[in-house]
Amino acid sequence: MKNYLIFGLLLTFAWSINAQKKELRTAGKELDRGNFEKASTGLSAAASFLDAMDEKQKSQYYLYQSILFFKNGSATSAEIDQSVEAFGNVTSAVPTQEKGMHLQKLINHLLTKGSDFASTNDYSSATDYFSNAYKLSQKDTIYLYYAASSAVNAQQYDKSLAMYEQLKSLGFTGIEKQFFAVNKETNEVEPFDSKVLRDVSVKTKTHINPTEKNTKSKYPEIIKNMALIYNQRGETEKALEAMREARAENPDDLNLVLTEANVHYSMGNTQKFKELLEYATERDPNNAELQYNLGVLAAEANDVANAKKYYQRAIEINPKYTNAYINIAALILGQEESIIDEMNNLGTSAADDRRYDELREERNQLYLDAIPYLEQALVADPTNVQAAKTLSNIFSATGNDAKAKEYKDLANSLEQ
User: Fold this and answer.
1) Second label for 130, Cα 20 to 30 Å away, from 179, 186, 187, 306?
2) pTM
3) For residue 358, how many C-alpha atoms fall within 13 Å in the half-sphere facing its CB?
4) Are 243 and 279 spatial neighbours (Cβ–Cβ below 8 Å)?
5) Which range, 4-13, 34-43, 165-174, is most confident?
6) Does residue 6 form part of some domain?
7) How many domains are there within the chain?
8) Which residue, 140, 104, 144, is CA-closest to 127?
9) pLDDT tens, 10-27?
10) Residue where a domain terminates, one of 163, 186, 214
């Protein structure tokens, strides 16, 4: 009797194994044909045997499940998450080629979509796609960096901070070797995606003088962003500690000096703020961007005189620094508010009427003072819509209708 029972159990077990293989084979064939509905039916049937499957069969099941959710690149965001999660259960028991081909397709899709979302300023979605790419290939820490950067732009500061801390613990620098060679026909230096491609071009004699160089480390930027996030969260001591570390890593990066200055300013440490600004200016007095950034920081501190001085210095160094012209005009026009407030608070006496006329002239003079800077901004950048619109408004306010129409027409043409 026992022998019959054992034989019956063996038959049941053998039937189960055959059923598993059959359903998996069916699902695989339907996936190859792009029949996702039939493949889903096959995988649903195979799922009932999941506990009885060996490692290879389970991995095959999860690989097919990942391929099914991926839908050959037409998956929704939620389905992409499911595809990535399923792939996480795939082990080395699955044939390397089959697994590798799907993995590469999935990663390429995630990176392409992530980049597309970032280009349309949908940084939240970009973060999710880059994060998933990193889940699939954790040796490619650059994907985690992309996710962290996107999270910052999405103002998801807690999420980005966690990613930056992980990058820091991994010792991530983002330094990459770049390959170049001179095109013999154009005599211009051209970049190559890899050393192999560069060397092939040199061997075929289309290029000469091969060179290599490393990109800058992204580590200081990571520490700087961590500092800014700490500061935004009110954790100023952590912010300053991060800034000190960032500057120790890259003492010549004056943007880090400016960032630390900004942290001190937010803490009310105005003396330290000024010291760092002076230090930055001494280190690189002919850096237009630095002078411009100093102007921005001074303007944020309501130090109008120094802000204007720094902007003018930036223009001296680089006469085409459009934003410096615009910001000087903004500083001038910013004085209008106090004039308008006083005008609105005047009474109806003769003295008040005289004062009103004086204030109106002062306001008119502000407009006239701002015009040359806005016109220079348009000379430096003829496509600057902001400058054209502001000039149109100013000329309209000063009664120069012809000029107002000229710049209004220009602004409209630039927006088309």
Assistant:
1) 179
2) 0.66
3) 8
4) no
5) 165-174
6) yes
7) 3
8) 144
9) 434 333 455 556 667 777
10) 214
Contact 219, 211 (CB under 8 A): no
Q: Output 70 or 10, whichever has higher pLDDT.
A: 70
Domain that holds residue 340: 319-416
CB 141 within 8 A of CB 165: no
For residues 217 and 253, the answer to whether their CB atoms sit within 8 Å is no
For residue 146, tell me if it sits in a domain: no
Token pair in block for residue 156: 């998801």
CA pair distance 61, 329, nearest whole angstrom: 65
What is the pLDDT averaged over residues 256-280? Answer: 80
Are 49 and 16 in contact by the 8 Å Cβ rule? The answer is yes
Q: Is residue 293 part of a domain?
A: no
Same domain, 182 and 90: no
Mean pLDDT of 37-66: 81
Go through the chain and tell me how many residues it has.
416
**Residue 285 to residues 252, 280, 374, Cα–Cα distance (Å):** 14, 8, 25
Domain ends where: 198, 214, 230?
A: 214
Q: Examine the pLDDT at 228 and tell me if it is beyond 80.
A: yes
pLDDT above 70 for 235: yes
